[in-house]
Amino acid sequence: MDREGDAPRSVLFACALNAVRSPMAAAILQHLIGGRIHVASAGVRAGMLDPYAVAVMDEIGIDMSEHEPAPLKDIESETFDLIVTLSPEAHHHGVELTRIMPADIEYWPTPDATVMLESGDREQILIAYRAVRDSLFQRVKTRFLPPGGGPSI
């Protein structure tokens, strides 16, 4: 169906809890392309919206505060052209979804910034979350926009 660089009509971003990585990626893509592509996000399990993720997205003018984490099982009835998985666990589940949904799948290994919650102070945590945000921003921009298109962080 889609090859790297082609524009799908619908994209699902998936991670472990749908609390940081996948909602960030979905919000970034939605911000960059508006309503031209249906964008959703889900997790293997539904977590709680992460306030650090909301804060670092707000820093670049993207409001994620209304995001409600959802598990993959809640979106199985939807169809997507492309599933982008951001964690190993989500990739395994994404591959399983492609058995019932004719979707392409891409794996974008993305660090889990929440590991900093156990040992970092507030600034160290924000630095880790910003690194994930910035990495996702560049990856989304490269994958979904024409070369040289779109804003920078």
Topology (elements, then pairings):
Layout: E1 10-15, H1 21-33, E2 38-43, H2 51-59, E3 82-85, H3 88-97, E4 104-107, H4 122-144
Parallel strand pairs: 1-2, 1-3, 3-4
Spans of at least 5 consecutive residues whose pLDDT stays below 50 are: 1-5
Count of DSSP-assigned helices: 4
The share of residues in extended strands comes to: 5-15%
N-to-C series of helices and strands? EHEHEHEH
Percent helix range: 25-40%
How many strands, what sense, and barrel or not for the largest sheet?
4 strands, parallel
Cα Rg: 15 Å
- CATH topology, what is it called? Rossmann fold
Structural class: alpha/beta
| CA(first)-CA(last) distance | 31 Å
Morphology: globular
CATH architecture label: 3-Layer(aba) Sandwich
Count of spatially separate domains: 1
User: What's the β-strand tally?
Assistant: 4
CATH homologous superfamily placement: Response regulator
**Reading side by side through the largest sheet, how are the strands ordered?**
2-1-3-4
The CATH C-level class name? Alpha Beta
The gist of it:
This protein has 153 residues and is of the alpha/beta class. It has four helices and four strands; from the N terminus they run βαβαβαβα.
